[in-house]
Design goal:
Subcellular location: Cytoplasm
Distance between the termini: 67 Å
Number of strands: 15
Keywords: Coiled coil, Cytoplasm, GTP-binding, Magnesium, Metal-binding, Nucleotide-binding
InterPro entries: EFG_III/V (IPR035647), G_HFLX_dom (IPR030394), GTP-bd (IPR006073), GTP-bd_M (IPR032305), GTPase_HflX (IPR016496), GTPase_HflX_N (IPR025121), GTPase_HflX_N_sf (IPR042108), HflX_C (IPR045498)
Main location: cytoplasm
Strand order of the largest sheet: 6-7-5-8-9-11-10
Function: GTPase that associates with the 50S ribosomal subunit and may have a role during protein synthesis or ribosome biogenesis.
Radius of gyration: 27 Å
Shape: elongated
Length: about 425
């Protein structure tokens, strides 16, 4: 049997420069996105404008140049490194006689290819449909005419109205399914919170090496490759740290500048792992000349999902590409704030474990309690949390407890007892 090779789609890339900064970096990222989508780049067209053209985004002259190049090269698709309006997309398609997609559609297509879990596929489909909702007019002719003909006479809906109604129904069905999956994920999250196991979330710009680092630390087999959005579905693994015990490490989807808002909204339940973590590992590609801007873009997405106030440890990855030595940076309080390592070679990974142990153990409390007999339900609660180091009863039936638990857990217990537990504290030194 002969092998059938799949010919990749061929594309013309278009980038419009509205400022003189980061032109080459923007183009490099666009090429990486196109390569990650499995598309071959034929030509790159650049232009400079002070503002987008209302009709063609690039102006009629440059649009004509793109159309001529499409005819000359036989390109399958024209990809813009910008967000296009439905009208601009439609006008360009009519002129170029081929498909025209924008940056958002390209990213959504990559996500569709990467989704592996049922929840991930539903989230991507929801984002795609929400993005498509305003673009239904594209590619249709005479959609304002009502159905007619034998077997086609309907209730008077136009074809476009029918498509929009079907799309709304599908979106509603997807949202209902995702709501159920979100409840299931929330139950698992609450179970982890009850067990009081610290959660460390790995975040960062796409292709910074998050999954490679995740695999190195946890001995997992998460797919890792030198491409954008290699990992889409979240992965959680247990890990034991010296001085801390068991923790959960969560690997999530990488971020990117101009991340589609619909995509962020659709993946909010998945990104909840990041928002509810005890600590964030912000992985940064140290060899990327635009690392500072990439870090800023990650912080913007974290703000959007309300996860920007969590404690964070910066991990500068790929030091092997710069011939740097692994090290830990500390702040004025002698707390780790950054670790320099190489996830590929493993250099500095032991320092990361050391920094994690210090940060997580510093957030634990040693508390001595004297509980009266009518408060024994708290003794049972602390046993469930595995927080009791020592216990003994006196002649009056009071229970003397020596606890070791995280500060967040203790604050939660105080809140649930309306502050009453504070009355039974004998001592509370912070470790």
């Amino acid at each position: 049997m002969s092998d059938i090779s799949v010919v990749p789609e061929q594309a013309i890339l278009v980038h419009v420069n509205f400022s003189q900064q980061h032109v080459s970096e923007d183009l490099t990222e666009l090429k990486l996105l196109v390569s990650s989508a499995g598309v071959q780049t034929l030509q790159v067209i650049t232009a400079s404008r002070s503002a987008p053209d209302a009709k063609f985004f690039v102006g009629s002259g440059k649009a004509g140049e793109i159309a001529a190049l499409v005819e000359e090269t036989g390109a399958d698709v024209v990809i813009f490194n910008h967000a296009l309006s439905p009208a601009q997309t439609r006008n360009l398609e009519r002129l170029c006689l081929t498909r025209v997609i924008d940056r958002t559609t390209l990213i959504l297509d990559i996500f569709a290819q990467r989704a592996r879990t049922f929840e991930g596929k539903l989230q991507v489909e929801l984002a795609q449909l929400q993005h498509l909702a305003s673009r239904l007019v594209r590619g249709w002719d005479s959609l304002d005419r009502q159905k007619g003909g034998i077997g086609l006479r309907g209730p008077g809906e136009t074809q476009l109205e029918t498509d929009r109604r079907l799309l709304r129904e599908r979106v509603k069905a997807l949202q209902t399914r995702l709501a159920k999956l979100t409840k299931q994920r929330e139950q698992g999250r609450r179970a982890r919170q009850r067990s009081e196991v610290p959660v460390v979330s790995v975040v960062g710009y796409t292709n910074a090496g998050k999954s490679t680092l995740f695999n190195r630390i946890t001995k997992a087999d998460v797919y890792a490759a030198d491409q954008l959005f290699a990992t889409l579905d979240p992965t959680l693994r247990k890990l034991k740290l010296k001085g801390v015990g068991e923790i959960i490490l969560a690997d999530t989807v990488g971020f990117i500048r101009h991340l589609p808002h619909d995509l962020v909204a659709a993946f909010k339940s998945t990104l909840q792992e990041t928002r509810d973590a005890d600590l964030q590992l912000h992985v940064v590609d140290l060899s990327d000349p635009r690392k500072d801007d990439n870090m800023q873009q990650v912080e913007l997405v974290l703000q959007e999902i309300e996860a920007d106030q969590l404690p964070q440890l910066v991990v500068y990855n790929k030091i092997d590409l710069l011939q740097q030595l692994p090290r830990i940076e500390y702040n004025e309080y002698k707390q780790p704030v950054a670790v320099y390592l190489s996830a590929v070679s493993g250099a500095g990974v032991d320092l990361l474990a050391q920094a994690l142990s210090q940060l997580l153990s510093e957030r634990y409390l040693d508390i001595a309690l004297l509980l009266p007999p009518d408060q024994m339900h708290w003794r049972a609660r602390f046993h469930q949390q595995h927080s009791i180091e020592q216990e003994q009863f006196d002649a009056d039936g009071n229970c003397q407890l020596q606890l070791r638990l995280s500060e967040s857990v203790w604050n939660r217990c105080l809140k649930q007892s309306h502050g009453q537990l504070e009355n039974y504290v004998v001592s509370k030194p912070v470790i």
